[in-house]
Every structure is written in structure tokens, then in C-alpha cells.
Specification:
71 residues
């Protein structure tokens, strides 16, 4: 697939933390609206992450977690 390869994180657009993380949590990750793009030959992919407590309450939201493909 075109998304195969190694990627490094390069940017976080926005982070909102609502409460402390307990002993355990889980995350829901979805491809951001900007999705994937090529910039100067380097592929970038962006995701939004919602961190949830084990009871389902939102702990934090992270928008625009962007990764760039490396050679």
C-alpha cells in the first residue's frame, strides 16, 4: 500500500486534556479530514485521537497528529 514504510511524527495541531489518565485507557484514532498528502515528495498522514477512560469518558482529544514518511 502507499502508506507502507516508516513515518515520524512532525506536528500536533491541538491538544485538549480534560482530566488525568488513570491506570488504563484506550484511544480511538481516525484519519483527519486532511487525510494523506504528498508534499515535496514526502508523504504525510494526519490523524485525530480521542483518549478515553475505561468507563468511556473522554480524557483528552488530540487533533492533527501528522506523520511524514521517511526514506
Amino acid at each position: 500500500a502507499a502508506e507502507d514504510g516508516e513515518y515520524l511524527p512532525i506536528r500536533l495541531e491541538r491538544v485538549q486534556a480534560y482530566t488525568r489518565v488513570g491506570e488504563s485507557c484506550f484511544a480511538f484514532v481516525r484519519k483527519a479530514d486532511s487525510g494523506a498528502c504528498d508534499t515535496g515528495g514526502a508523504r504525510q498522514i494526519s490523524y485525530d485521537v480521542t483518549m478515553l477512560a475505561m468507563n468511556g469518558s473522554v480524557i483528552a482529544q488530540i487533533e492533527g497528529v501528522t506523520f511524514r514518511q521517511v526514506d
